[in-house]
């Protein structure tokens, strides 16, 4: 079948064997915890997907990365969600790394040893600005001490490294957003049960608690972001990668539902354009921003981030419409006989729960359209 062929070809090119390994398991097994999907991702070289080739990774472009994520989402929604957190953390390290810096050594280890990064960036609390971390940081001599928790935190039980957003005061007392890189075996890190829903349980989204966790200062990257919540270049790049990879993964989940409708026993709907048009148009919007990221003449600025947000919010609407139409096309007996259709519809709809939520961005987007800098709500 031609549908998803391009994405699955990209997945096979960059992570050979992963699609077949995922297809060998029933969806219910992949979405449980522990899931065999995470081990298959490691075995295929997945952790190094965005690590530069010079450091031993795959070094794929944003365009190829979103195609890979869509293919992964079509096989295993939990893996797409979990690996989005890993990939965008890696992309941030790539963006910030300078020759010979500690970040380069970490990136080389990620590619060589298949290390997985869990992302403890601020999200998941209603009314909380996502650039205001839940984890505190204070200096203690040449060390930085971390306290707090992140919930949910994907890959919490499989992580090798934790990337955490923190607020760190400079010499003038000004608090700035920083990113700490912490080995998972560091004393003071504890993983506690948190995720109670069976949907996306395979992403290992539990609570990670940090109590007096010490890291070297050189493993804490300080940005220029302060309390005004206006992202700097590094944060803008991080949001770009996050929104695109996340959206592509969830479009993959919706695409799995479309694929089932197109191949259902007894024949597919006579007119396939309804569900196809929805997910394909949404993916084209994602790919448009991914192509722009590779354009050396296109700055990674507020305008591009707004384009990524528009692609993401349009995908939310497309997923909602597609899920309804596909479940109707599959019919009542398919609903009665299997949980797969309803599971995929529920999982795909979770895109709307990730930051920055559309409702919280209404004001900042209005301000941006009126000529002010983009704030992240």
UniProtKB/TrEMBL annotation:
<dbReference type="GO" id="GO:0003995">
    <property type="term" value="F:acyl-CoA dehydrogenase activity"/>
</dbReference>
<dbReference type="GO" id="GO:0050660">
    <property type="term" value="F:flavin adenine dinucleotide binding"/>
</dbReference>
<feature type="domain" description="Acyl-CoA oxidase/dehydrogenase middle">
    <location>
        <begin position="119"/>
        <end position="213"/>
    </location>
</feature>
<dbReference type="InterPro" id="IPR046373">
    <property type="entry name" value="Acyl-CoA_Oxase/DH_mid-dom_sf"/>
</dbReference>
<dbReference type="InterPro" id="IPR006091">
    <property type="entry name" value="Acyl-CoA_Oxase/DH_mid-dom"/>
</dbReference>
<dbReference type="InterPro" id="IPR037069">
    <property type="entry name" value="AcylCoA_DH/ox_N_sf"/>
</dbReference>
<protein>
    <submittedName>
        <fullName>Isobutylamine N-hydroxylase</fullName>
    </submittedName>
</protein>
<keyword id="KW-0285">Flavoprotein</keyword>
<keyword id="KW-0274">FAD</keyword>
<dbReference type="InterPro" id="IPR036250">
    <property type="entry name" value="AcylCo_DH-like_C"/>
</dbReference>
<keyword id="KW-0560">Oxidoreductase</keyword>
<dbReference type="Pfam" id="PF02770">
    <property type="entry name" value="Acyl-CoA_dh_M"/>
</dbReference>
<dbReference type="InterPro" id="IPR009100">
    <property type="entry name" value="AcylCoA_DH/oxidase_NM_dom_sf"/>
</dbReference>
